[in-house]
Protein backbone atom coordinates (compact mmCIF):
# COMPACT_ATOMS: atom_id res chain seq x y z
CA UNK A 1 0.00 0.00 0.00
CA UNK A 2 1.41 3.36 -0.99
CA UNK A 3 1.76 6.20 1.48
CA UNK A 4 -1.00 8.17 -0.26
CA UNK A 5 -3.60 5.41 -0.19
CA UNK A 6 -6.10 5.39 2.67
CA UNK A 7 -6.62 2.05 4.42
CA UNK A 8 -9.82 0.11 3.79
CA UNK A 9 -12.76 1.53 5.75
CA UNK A 10 -11.16 4.95 6.12
CA UNK A 11 -11.52 8.43 4.73
CA UNK A 12 -8.20 10.23 4.23
CA UNK A 13 -6.61 7.98 6.81
CA UNK A 14 -9.35 8.46 9.44
CA UNK A 15 -11.17 5.21 10.31
CA UNK A 16 -14.89 5.26 9.56
CA UNK A 17 -15.61 4.16 13.12
CA UNK A 18 -13.82 7.21 14.48
CA UNK A 19 -15.72 9.42 12.06
CA UNK A 20 -19.00 8.01 13.38
CA UNK A 21 -17.97 8.51 17.00
CA UNK A 22 -16.92 12.07 16.27
CA UNK A 23 -20.19 12.76 14.47
CA UNK A 24 -22.16 11.37 17.42
CA UNK A 25 -20.29 13.55 19.89
CA UNK A 26 -20.84 16.65 17.77
CA UNK A 27 -24.52 15.80 17.37
CA UNK A 28 -24.98 15.40 21.14
CA UNK A 29 -23.24 18.71 21.79
CA UNK A 30 -25.41 20.47 19.21
CA UNK A 31 -28.54 18.97 20.74
CA UNK A 32 -27.42 20.10 24.19
CA UNK A 33 -27.23 23.68 22.87
CA UNK A 34 -30.89 23.86 21.79
CA UNK A 35 -32.42 24.67 25.23
CA UNK A 36 -29.72 27.30 25.76
CA UNK A 37 -30.51 28.93 22.40
CA UNK A 38 -34.17 28.89 23.39
CA UNK A 39 -33.37 31.44 26.14
CA UNK A 40 -31.96 34.01 23.72
CA UNK A 41 -33.99 37.18 23.05
CA UNK A 42 -36.87 36.79 20.61
CA UNK A 43 -35.19 39.04 18.04
CA UNK A 44 -31.94 37.04 18.04
CA UNK A 45 -31.07 35.23 14.80
CA UNK A 46 -29.81 32.24 16.81
CA UNK A 47 -32.89 31.83 18.98
CA UNK A 48 -34.53 28.40 18.86
CA UNK A 49 -38.31 28.29 19.25
CA UNK A 50 -40.22 26.46 21.98
CA UNK A 51 -41.63 24.17 19.28
CA UNK A 52 -38.17 23.17 18.10
CA UNK A 53 -37.09 22.24 21.62
CA UNK A 54 -40.27 20.26 22.23
CA UNK A 55 -40.24 18.38 18.94
CA UNK A 56 -36.52 17.58 19.22
CA UNK A 57 -37.07 16.26 22.72
CA UNK A 58 -39.79 14.03 21.30
CA UNK A 59 -37.38 12.75 18.63
CA UNK A 60 -34.83 11.94 21.33
CA UNK A 61 -37.40 9.73 23.08
CA UNK A 62 -38.15 8.08 19.75
CA UNK A 63 -34.42 7.47 19.28
CA UNK A 64 -34.30 5.58 22.60
CA UNK A 65 -37.23 3.46 21.41
CA UNK A 66 -35.42 2.76 18.13
CA UNK A 67 -32.29 1.81 20.08
CA UNK A 68 -34.34 -0.65 22.14
CA UNK A 69 -35.78 -2.24 19.00
CA UNK A 70 -32.34 -2.49 17.38
CA UNK A 71 -30.94 -4.23 20.44
CA UNK A 72 -33.57 -6.97 20.14
CA UNK A 73 -33.97 -7.12 16.36
CA UNK A 74 -30.54 -6.15 15.08
CA UNK A 75 -28.50 -8.29 17.47
CA UNK A 76 -30.82 -11.14 18.52
CA UNK A 77 -33.06 -11.37 15.47
CA UNK A 78 -36.20 -10.74 17.56
CA UNK A 79 -38.49 -8.73 15.30
CA UNK A 80 -41.04 -7.23 17.67
CA UNK A 81 -43.99 -5.36 16.22
CA UNK A 82 -45.25 -4.48 19.68
CA UNK A 83 -42.58 -2.21 21.16
CA UNK A 84 -45.03 0.66 20.88
CA UNK A 85 -46.95 -1.08 23.68
CA UNK A 86 -43.94 -0.98 26.02
CA UNK A 87 -43.39 2.67 25.11
CA UNK A 88 -47.05 3.48 25.80
CA UNK A 89 -47.11 1.58 29.11
CA UNK A 90 -44.13 3.61 30.32
CA UNK A 91 -45.96 6.73 29.19
CA UNK A 92 -49.11 5.76 31.06
CA UNK A 93 -47.10 5.14 34.24
CA UNK A 94 -45.74 8.69 34.07
CA UNK A 95 -49.15 10.02 33.05
CA UNK A 96 -50.70 8.43 36.15
CA UNK A 97 -48.17 10.24 38.32
CA UNK A 98 -48.85 13.56 36.60
CA UNK A 99 -52.60 13.08 36.96
CA UNK A 100 -52.22 12.34 40.67
CA UNK A 101 -50.85 15.85 41.03
CA UNK A 102 -54.12 17.33 39.75
CA UNK A 103 -57.27 17.64 41.80
CA UNK A 104 -58.49 18.51 45.31
CA UNK A 105 -55.92 17.90 48.06
CA UNK A 106 -56.49 15.43 50.85
CA UNK A 107 -55.53 15.50 54.52
CA UNK A 108 -51.81 14.96 53.88
CA UNK A 109 -51.60 17.32 50.92
CA UNK A 110 -51.90 14.60 48.27
CA UNK A 111 -54.65 14.73 45.64
CA UNK A 112 -57.56 12.44 46.46
CA UNK A 113 -58.68 11.66 42.90
CA UNK A 114 -57.47 12.71 39.44
CA UNK A 115 -59.84 15.24 37.92
CA UNK A 116 -61.16 12.89 35.23
CA UNK A 117 -62.19 10.39 37.92
CA UNK A 118 -64.13 13.12 39.70
CA UNK A 119 -65.89 13.88 36.40
CA UNK A 120 -66.71 10.19 35.84
CA UNK A 121 -68.09 9.81 39.35
CA UNK A 122 -65.42 7.63 40.96
CA UNK A 123 -65.87 7.32 44.74
CA UNK A 124 -62.35 6.14 45.53
CA UNK A 125 -58.99 5.65 43.90
CA UNK A 126 -58.57 2.23 42.20
CA UNK A 127 -55.97 0.04 43.92
CA UNK A 128 -53.65 0.03 40.91
CA UNK A 129 -53.36 3.83 41.17
CA UNK A 130 -51.93 3.64 44.69
CA UNK A 131 -48.35 4.86 44.96
CA UNK A 132 -48.38 6.91 41.78
CA UNK A 133 -48.35 10.14 43.73
CA UNK A 134 -44.63 9.42 44.26
CA UNK A 135 -42.26 10.09 41.35
CA UNK A 136 -39.78 7.24 42.10
CA UNK A 137 -42.66 4.75 42.17
CA UNK A 138 -43.89 5.98 38.78
CA UNK A 139 -40.40 5.57 37.25
CA UNK A 140 -40.16 2.09 38.78
CA UNK A 141 -43.52 1.13 37.25
CA UNK A 142 -42.46 2.60 33.89
CA UNK A 143 -39.69 -0.01 33.89
CA UNK A 144 -41.35 -2.85 35.76
CA UNK A 145 -44.67 -3.07 33.88
CA UNK A 146 -43.18 -3.18 30.35
CA UNK A 147 -40.43 -5.49 31.58
CA UNK A 148 -42.92 -7.87 33.21
CA UNK A 149 -45.12 -7.95 30.11
CA UNK A 150 -42.09 -8.62 27.93
CA UNK A 151 -41.01 -11.40 30.29
CA UNK A 152 -44.38 -13.15 30.12
CA UNK A 153 -44.78 -12.83 26.35
CA UNK A 154 -41.13 -13.65 25.71
CA UNK A 155 -40.99 -16.63 28.06
CA UNK A 156 -44.10 -18.26 26.62
CA UNK A 157 -42.94 -17.62 23.05
CA UNK A 158 -39.23 -18.43 23.31
CA UNK A 159 -39.81 -21.53 25.42
CA UNK A 160 -42.17 -22.79 22.70
CA UNK A 161 -39.55 -21.83 20.08
CA UNK A 162 -41.88 -19.37 18.37
CA UNK A 163 -39.72 -17.18 16.15
CA UNK A 164 -39.81 -15.07 13.02
CA UNK A 165 -43.08 -13.84 11.63
CA UNK A 166 -45.12 -15.82 14.17
CA UNK A 167 -43.52 -13.96 17.07
CA UNK A 168 -44.03 -10.67 15.24
CA UNK A 169 -47.74 -11.44 14.88
CA UNK A 170 -48.01 -12.25 18.60
CA UNK A 171 -46.46 -8.93 19.59
CA UNK A 172 -48.68 -7.11 17.11
CA UNK A 173 -51.76 -8.77 18.61
CA UNK A 174 -50.52 -7.83 22.09
CA UNK A 175 -50.35 -4.12 21.37
CA UNK A 176 -53.69 -4.17 19.55
CA UNK A 177 -55.35 -5.91 22.52
CA UNK A 178 -53.90 -3.32 24.90
CA UNK A 179 -55.15 -0.50 22.69
CA UNK A 180 -58.71 -1.89 22.80
CA UNK A 181 -58.49 -2.37 26.58
CA UNK A 182 -57.23 1.17 27.28
CA UNK A 183 -60.00 2.65 25.13
CA UNK A 184 -62.55 1.37 27.66
CA UNK A 185 -63.71 3.99 30.16
CA UNK A 186 -64.18 1.40 32.91
CA UNK A 187 -60.47 0.53 32.85
CA UNK A 188 -59.72 3.66 34.88
CA UNK A 189 -57.18 5.12 32.46
CA UNK A 190 -59.20 7.96 30.99
CA UNK A 191 -60.71 6.01 28.09
CA UNK A 192 -60.22 7.40 24.61
CA UNK A 193 -59.24 10.81 26.03
CA UNK A 194 -56.33 9.41 28.01
CA UNK A 195 -54.41 11.83 30.24
CA UNK A 196 -53.63 15.47 29.47
CA UNK A 197 -53.60 18.98 30.94
CA UNK A 198 -50.65 18.17 33.19
CA UNK A 199 -49.66 20.90 35.62
CA UNK A 200 -46.33 20.11 37.25
CA UNK A 201 -43.53 17.60 37.72
CA UNK A 202 -41.30 17.48 40.78
CA UNK A 203 -42.79 20.78 41.89
CA UNK A 204 -41.91 22.59 38.64
CA UNK A 205 -44.74 23.90 36.38
CA UNK A 206 -44.56 22.10 33.03
CA UNK A 207 -45.43 25.13 30.92
CA UNK A 208 -42.13 26.89 31.61
CA UNK A 209 -38.85 27.05 29.70
CA UNK A 210 -37.03 25.61 32.69
CA UNK A 211 -39.26 22.53 32.72
CA UNK A 212 -38.88 22.02 28.97
CA UNK A 213 -35.12 22.35 29.23
CA UNK A 214 -34.95 19.94 32.18
CA UNK A 215 -37.03 17.31 30.37
CA UNK A 216 -34.96 17.79 27.22
CA UNK A 217 -31.70 17.18 29.07
CA UNK A 218 -33.23 14.21 30.91
CA UNK A 219 -34.18 12.66 27.57
CA UNK A 220 -30.72 13.40 26.16
CA UNK A 221 -29.09 11.80 29.21
CA UNK A 222 -31.31 8.73 28.80
CA UNK A 223 -30.31 8.47 25.16
CA UNK A 224 -26.59 8.77 25.91
CA UNK A 225 -26.82 6.31 28.81
CA UNK A 226 -28.84 3.82 26.76
CA UNK A 227 -26.36 4.02 23.90
CA UNK A 228 -23.40 3.41 26.22
CA UNK A 229 -25.19 0.49 27.89
CA UNK A 230 -26.20 -1.14 24.62
CA UNK A 231 -22.74 -0.61 23.11
CA UNK A 232 -21.20 -2.27 26.16
CA UNK A 233 -23.59 -5.21 26.06
CA UNK A 234 -23.09 -6.02 22.39
CA UNK A 235 -19.34 -6.02 22.96
CA UNK A 236 -19.53 -8.66 25.72
CA UNK A 237 -20.05 -12.40 25.55
CA UNK A 238 -23.79 -11.76 25.78
CA UNK A 239 -23.66 -9.72 22.59
CA UNK A 240 -21.62 -12.33 20.74
CA UNK A 241 -24.03 -15.09 21.74
CA UNK A 242 -27.01 -12.96 20.68
CA UNK A 243 -25.51 -12.46 17.23
CA UNK A 244 -24.92 -16.21 17.02
CA UNK A 245 -28.55 -16.80 18.00
CA UNK A 246 -29.65 -14.38 15.31
CA UNK A 247 -27.59 -16.09 12.61
CA UNK A 248 -27.82 -19.76 13.63
CA UNK A 249 -30.16 -20.36 16.57
CA UNK A 250 -30.28 -24.15 16.22
CA UNK A 251 -26.47 -24.41 16.29
CA UNK A 252 -26.26 -22.27 19.43
CA UNK A 253 -28.87 -24.47 21.07
CA UNK A 254 -26.92 -27.58 20.02
CA UNK A 255 -23.77 -26.18 21.69
CA UNK A 256 -25.59 -26.19 25.04
CA UNK A 257 -26.51 -22.51 25.42
CA UNK A 258 -29.91 -21.61 26.85
CA UNK A 259 -31.24 -19.71 23.88
CA UNK A 260 -34.45 -18.93 25.74
CA UNK A 261 -32.56 -17.22 28.57
CA UNK A 262 -30.43 -15.10 26.24
CA UNK A 263 -33.35 -13.99 24.09
CA UNK A 264 -35.51 -13.33 27.14
CA UNK A 265 -32.80 -11.19 28.74
CA UNK A 266 -32.37 -8.91 25.76
CA UNK A 267 -36.12 -8.72 25.09
CA UNK A 268 -36.90 -7.65 28.65
CA UNK A 269 -34.07 -5.11 28.67
CA UNK A 270 -35.33 -3.73 25.36
CA UNK A 271 -38.84 -3.35 26.82
CA UNK A 272 -37.50 -1.53 29.89
CA UNK A 273 -35.64 0.98 27.71
CA UNK A 274 -38.79 1.53 25.65
CA UNK A 275 -40.79 2.09 28.84
CA UNK A 276 -38.33 4.71 30.10
CA UNK A 277 -38.49 6.47 26.74
CA UNK A 278 -42.27 6.57 27.01
CA UNK A 279 -42.09 7.94 30.55
CA UNK A 280 -40.07 10.94 29.37
CA UNK A 281 -42.12 11.36 26.22
CA UNK A 282 -45.39 12.09 28.05
CA UNK A 283 -44.38 15.24 29.99
CA UNK A 284 -42.59 16.49 26.87
CA UNK A 285 -45.67 16.27 24.63
CA UNK A 286 -48.25 16.84 27.36
CA UNK A 287 -50.61 13.97 26.52
CA UNK A 288 -50.94 10.19 26.48
CA UNK A 289 -53.92 8.28 25.08
CA UNK A 290 -54.67 4.77 23.75
CA UNK A 291 -53.64 5.85 20.27
CA UNK A 292 -50.03 5.31 21.37
CA UNK A 293 -50.78 1.57 21.39
CA UNK A 294 -51.78 1.60 17.71
CA UNK A 295 -49.98 -1.21 15.84
CA UNK A 296 -48.94 1.27 13.17
CA UNK A 297 -46.72 3.07 15.69
CA UNK A 298 -44.73 -0.10 16.36
CA UNK A 299 -44.36 -0.78 12.65
CA UNK A 300 -43.18 2.78 12.05
CA UNK A 301 -40.55 2.41 14.77
CA UNK A 302 -39.23 -0.73 13.05
CA UNK A 303 -38.98 1.26 9.84
CA UNK A 304 -36.78 3.84 11.62
CA UNK A 305 -34.33 1.07 12.49
CA UNK A 306 -34.42 -0.40 8.99
CA UNK A 307 -33.79 3.00 7.38
CA UNK A 308 -30.87 3.77 9.66
CA UNK A 309 -29.37 0.29 9.52
CA UNK A 310 -30.21 -2.48 11.96
CA UNK A 311 -27.56 -4.18 14.04
CA UNK A 312 -25.50 -0.99 14.35
CA UNK A 313 -27.19 0.97 17.21
CA UNK A 314 -26.01 4.24 15.63
CA UNK A 315 -28.16 3.46 12.62
CA UNK A 316 -31.23 3.21 14.84
CA UNK A 317 -30.62 6.72 16.15
CA UNK A 318 -29.97 8.08 12.68
CA UNK A 319 -33.12 6.46 11.34
CA UNK A 320 -35.29 7.76 14.18
CA UNK A 321 -34.11 11.34 13.77
CA UNK A 322 -34.12 11.40 9.95
CA UNK A 323 -37.50 9.72 9.43
CA UNK A 324 -39.23 11.81 12.11
CA UNK A 325 -37.69 15.01 10.78
CA UNK A 326 -39.05 14.08 7.35
CA UNK A 327 -42.44 13.27 8.90
CA UNK A 328 -42.61 16.59 10.76
CA UNK A 329 -41.83 18.53 7.58
CA UNK A 330 -44.04 16.51 5.23
CA UNK A 331 -47.10 16.41 7.49
CA UNK A 332 -46.99 20.20 7.60
CA UNK A 333 -46.83 20.69 3.82
CA UNK A 334 -48.63 17.58 2.48
CA UNK A 335 -50.12 15.51 5.33
CA UNK A 336 -52.00 13.13 3.01
CA UNK A 337 -48.76 11.94 1.43
CA UNK A 338 -46.94 10.83 4.56
CA UNK A 339 -48.11 7.20 4.72
CA UNK A 340 -47.31 6.71 1.03
CA UNK A 341 -43.85 8.19 1.52
CA UNK A 342 -43.25 6.01 4.60
CA UNK A 343 -44.23 2.84 2.75
CA UNK A 344 -42.16 3.80 -0.27
CA UNK A 345 -39.21 4.62 1.96
CA UNK A 346 -39.32 1.18 3.57
CA UNK A 347 -39.53 -0.58 0.19
CA UNK A 348 -36.71 1.52 -1.23
CA UNK A 349 -34.44 0.85 1.73
CA UNK A 350 -35.19 -2.88 1.64
CA UNK A 351 -34.42 -3.14 -2.07
CA UNK A 352 -31.61 -0.64 -2.56
CA UNK A 353 -30.12 -0.09 0.92
CA UNK A 354 -30.52 -3.34 2.89
CA UNK A 355 -27.99 -2.07 5.43
CA UNK A 356 -29.60 1.34 5.73
CA UNK A 357 -28.00 4.75 5.85
CA UNK A 358 -25.11 3.47 7.95
CA UNK A 359 -24.32 0.91 5.26
CA UNK A 360 -24.32 3.68 2.68
CA UNK A 361 -21.97 5.73 4.84
CA UNK A 362 -19.58 2.82 5.29
CA UNK A 363 -19.46 2.17 1.55
CA UNK A 364 -18.79 5.85 0.91
CA UNK A 365 -15.87 5.89 3.37
CA UNK A 366 -14.07 2.88 1.92
TrEMBL record:
It is a multi-pass membrane protein. The chain crosses the membrane at residues 20-39, 51-69, 75-94, 135-158, 165-183, 215-234, 254-281, 301-325, 337-358. Its main location: membrane. The keyword Isomerase does not apply. It comes from the Bacteria. Keywords: Cell membrane, Membrane, Transmembrane, Transmembrane helix. InterPro entries: ABC_transp_permease (IPR001851), ABC_transptr_urea_perm_UrtC (IPR017778), LivM-like (IPR043428). It is found in: Cell membrane. PANTHER family: HIGH-AFFINITY BRANCHED-CHAIN AMINO ACID TRANSPORT SYSTEM PERMEASE (PTHR30482), SLR1201 PROTEIN (PTHR30482:SF4). This is Urea ABC transporter permease subunit UrtC. It comes from Roseomonas populi. The gene is urtC.
